[in-house]
Amino acid sequence: MRENRIQQLWAAGKPVINGWLHSPSTWSAEVMAHAGWDSLVIDMQHGMMGMETAIQMLQAISTSDTVPLARINWNTPGDAMRLLDAGAYGIICPMIETRAECEAFVGACRFPPLGYRSHGPTRARVYAGADYAEHANDTVLTFAMIETQAGFDNRDAIMSVPGLDAVFVGIGDLRLSMTGQAGLSAADATVDAALDAILASARAHGIKAGLFAADTEHAIDMLGRGYEFVTVMNDISLMTSAASSVLAAVRASLG
Hints:
The protein is an alpha/beta fold. It has one domain: TIM Barrel (Alpha-Beta Barrel). It contains 13 helices and eight strands. The protein has an eight-stranded parallel barrel, surrounded by eight helices. The mean pLDDT is 96.
């Protein structure tokens, strides 16, 4: 089975720099994959793509060495299984708040006896190899999102679930849940302390911790803090930022 480069980086003590896809486009997925990200997430929750387009985007990412991942829309086992069958090498599940919810999520991503994933890796066999079923439980990654006060309060119970590889902090929703304020950067003391507590719990349970960073400076700060899977913006925000910068520079030259 094809190795998971994320696992290789973590084993070497290196962080993963992750990209994020909101645009429902195989072309943008392919371009982002060849930009050099360690991994790319197809966002089925807040992105604009449906399942068929997401599967085609997985094919586009496969033209590179970038690891293909997906965030499912909700804790729905069927969606997780289908994306894994299509070749995703990891699933991020939003809004995990209890141990039971995490157990249901992780179980959907593991073949028996470790879980209840149905056997039918249609495209995964092509992408990963004919021996996919024998090694998938050790290669496919599971990320449970902690992004509410309840999830934060139950973080140790969530992180103790066997088969969970990492937690992924949804800073925007966590801030909303804790403070009632929107925003992605860890600028206030409440969210800042929560990020440290989540990281400490992840280390105590022997799993990895990741999050979404609002910009380059924020990403560098989170990497320095010790987060091992850091997403920097997304394809649409990157395009918007670059376009705005170019336009501002050209218009400024006109006086």
